[in-house]
Amino acid sequence: MPHDHRSARPRVAVVLEPAARAQLFGPEQWEDLKRTGDVVAECADAGELLGHPRRAEAEVLVASWGAPRLTAGVLAQLPALHTVLYGAGSIRGLVTDACWERGLTIVSAAEANNGPVAEYVYAQTVLALKDVHRRSRRMAAEQVLPGLDDVPGIHGQEVGLVSFGSVARMVASHLRRLGTRVLAWDPFLDDAVFRDAGTERVAGLPELVARSRVLSIHTPLVPGRTEGLITGELLRSLPRGATLINTARGAVIDEEAMIRILAERPDLQAVLDVTAEEPPRPGSPLYTLANVMLTGHVAGTAGSERRAIGALLAGELTRVAAGERPLHAVSPEASLLRA
User: Fold this and answer.
1) Considering only CA atoms, which of 248, 275, 229, 277 is closest in space to residue 339?
2) Catalytically annotated residue among 31, 278, 281, 324
3) Which of 324, 251, 211 is nearest to 92 (CA)?
């Protein structure tokens, strides 16, 4: 008879490097998690899990960066597994079709990661509309105090969001308080989503780009569908003095075309937390173009912010232990539209 996970503490396998575990969980939070679930395996990496003598007992997998890709072969080693609590944003490198065929519940901690990303975009937008990036470079290079004529200011400026998922909606909420005009493009959503968020829906991507003093990319990288979505032609239509922010995936932008246009138009600024290759290849113009700022994946949770991921995972384990459906489960359909 199969084990009834509703009648006892769920048996849990953990795959977390010690440093990652310390980032996600404080000592008290970790003990709380172990009281909620019966931790039958604590492993630092995928290889250790797949060699663990009690791996077949695991009903719940708690993991983060460095988790095993859940292929049919791996799942065969985890016959009791029914729920995966994944302490990271994108599940693309974790799940395979075998997960959905098995009927696994996959929980993503993307929602805990999204808040800091939205705060980063908000902060960079404020800096862009205050012309901070250009002014700081000019002051260092020319040792002058620039005038204020070229500073657009924040109130009434149009900020465009490419796709309108969770992060973009948080960004819109932040920016509306500043009196900016928030525009968004997303062909997959109903008008009511934009209306409820107090955001102007723009029907076409070309119009959005051409109107946006700041353009922020929030489109997931969906193979065969969104690579190079932001073309050189679109970028060329950005208003004079505009700033491009990308916290989604580098390959959503045609990077070679972007480099050419940034070289041609020093009035533009690109703030890139992600690039197509990470890091960019040696000698890439992205390192030397004066109007490019590379920030290297700092937008998502870092340092103390990662405790929010641990709290989300612990809360979801509590729901699983009570026989409830997790709040942050990802459906197979939704997984196709996620980063």
Assistant:
1) 248
2) 278
3) 251
- State phi, psi for 178 to the nearest 5 degrees: -90, -5
Of 273, 220, 218, 217, the C-alpha closest to 242 is 217
333 is catalytic: no
Active site residue 249: yes
Distances (CA, A) of 16 to 3, 39, 48, 204, 245: 25, 13, 10, 43, 32
Distance of CA 152 to the CA centre of its chain: 29
Selected catalytic residue, list 52, 55, 211, 249: 249
Residues 6+ apart with CB under 8 A from 9: 36, 37, 38, 321
* Catalytic one of 6, 48, 297, 324: 297
Is residue 200 flagged as an active site residue?
Answer: no
The arithmetic mean of pLDDT across residues 309-328, rounded, is 94
**pLDDT, average across residues 278-293:** 96
Task: Respond yes or no on whether the N-terminal peptide bond of residue 279 is cis (omega within 30° of 0).
Answer: yes
pLDDT cut 70: percent of the chain above it: 96
Residues 29 and 142: their CA atoms lie apart, in Å, by: 52
**Alpha-helix runs per DSSP H in the chain:** 18-24, 27-36, 46-50, 72-76, 97-102, 110-129, 132-142, 166-176, 191-196, 205-211, 232-236, 255-264, 307-321, 332-335
Residue for token pair 């819109």: 172
- Assess whether pLDDT exceeds 90 at residue 195: yes
Percentage, residues of the chain above pLDDT 90: 77
CB of 255 within 8 A of CB of 292?
A: no
Give the C-alpha separation, 335 to 72, whole Å.
18
**49, amino acid identity:** L
Q: What is the DSSP string of 7-59?
A: SSPPEEEEE--HHHHHHH--HHHHHHHHHHSEEEEEESSHHHHHT-TTGGG-S
